[in-house]
Every structure is written in C-alpha cells, then in structure tokens.
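Entry 14: structure prediction run for 23S rRNA pseudouridine1911/1915/1917 synthase. Input pasted below.
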Amino acid sequence: MSSTAGYQDLRGTADQKQHGQRLDQGLALLFDLSRRRIRRAIDEGGVYLNQKRCRTAGRKLSSGDKLRIVLLEKEKLIPFDSSQLLWQKPPLYLINKRAGQYSQEALHRSRGTLPDELGRHLGLPAALASTLRPVHRLDRGTSGLMLFSSDPALLQQLQANWKSCTFKTYLAVVEPAPEWQSREINLPIGPLRDKLGRYHVNEHGRPCRTSAEVIERKGNRALLRLQLHTGRTHQLRVHLSTLACPILGDIRYGGKGHPRLMLHAENLRIIQPALPDNTEWNAPPEENWQW
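Run finished. Output tokens:
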C-alpha cells in the first residue's frame, strides 16, 4: 500500500469472504472505501483484477484474485475541446494538447485521458477507439503538438522510424535567464528516477543532445527555442535544470512556482519513410502562456 498527497495505491487478495461477490462489494470489504467511491474508480479505470484493468463493477470474484485500486483525489481535469484537433487523415490525428491533459492512460484512470476523449469526439466505434494510441508522448504539464494513430501497424511503422524521421521544436520559459545566447547541450541522462520522480545527468547514461537559443528576455526570465535531437524522458527539463536555468513552473526540477509548466511543443516535422509525404505542423501556445 502507498499513499501520498491524495494518491493511494491499494492492493489485496480476495479470500473466501469475497468469493462469489461483485467486484465493488469485494473491494469495499478489503479497503476502507465507500462503494460509491469504488464504483467511480472502476468507471475511471483505476481498478485492476489480476493485473488487468477491469471496468465491470458486477464482475464476480474468486478466492485468490489479485485486486488493486489506484486513486488520486481532488484531481482537476482539463477537458478536450474540438478546437484542439488541428489535422486529421484517418487513422492519424494531430492535436494541440493543453497543459494538464493526460497524453495517455494513467494508472488511476483511462477515462478523461486524451485517447479516451479524442475517441469519443471522433465517434469511433469501441473496437477502433481501443486502438487509439499516442505516437509519442508529452508530460502532463507540457502543451503542444501530439500525433495519435488508431492503426496498430501504422503506429509501429511511425515509432520504428521516429528517431530518424522526426524533428521537434519546443518553447520554454526559464528562470533565471541563462548568460549564454545559444548553446549545444550534450549531457547523458541516467535511466533511473530518484524518489521524487526525477532523472539526472549521469556520465554512464544514454547520450542526449538539445540545441537551445534565447529568443526573448524579460528581466530575470528568458524564452528559449529548443530543438530536441534525442527523445529521452524529461530530457529538456533535466538539461535546463542541470544548467541552472530550470523551466518556470517545473517545481520537480527546481523551477519556481507558476500556474503552469512553461514548456510547449510548437513544431513537429515528419519526413519519409515514416509518412508517405514530408509533413510539418506548427501550433502556438494556449492562452495561459503568460510570463
């Protein structure tokens, strides 16, 4: 069992008391939660039966079943809006993700994430909606361009060619502003997170390269344009934090508090053979991009 700041990860095993009972009833017996809260967790996608997500409250339990319920209380979701869909050529869909939206399913929810909401917006049949996946990922706090595919074969093709055929540019506001105007950042990042969920530069880690350029300065803050040459998790956040100019709003990596993480994926270019035609998209930050 783990529990921090409204997050709970509860696990147990059904015994004879739960044998033959409904899933929601069995969970109520195992954990100190109301059946109403349990049913909401089931609907959101935060309940697992034998390591598989289960969305059926009436599912009958057997003795020995492994049960898990993952909760995050008082969570504020940012709903999907039709204006976010910038381009579509089924089975491909490009959206301008808002800061705070989930790029993919989280442990505690599948409902309310972008694959779920985009599928509902498109009116995809359940079988097709279940195959809708992000081709690449953005952290929850990051906004910007994201490509989705509902064709598993095309998704595999895109991901196989992603490193060699895609070019991504980001905007970031940092504080304090760096002394340099432009910089090539070559710092390897280790594969493991620390207890706070942070990655770190490690000389034995995987090579990571970022091109950074200051395009505007305001007092002790600066707006950077960043070109990502490798795509490691949290790469931009780790690189800028290591250079003592963390992203504004990135408290995890030493940034000052702000209403949002000031990181936006503004440009995405994909060339052949990842797609039949070379394609490029741009998207400005949303209205809450204030610094």
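Notes: The mean pLDDT is 96. Will compare against the previous run tomorrow.
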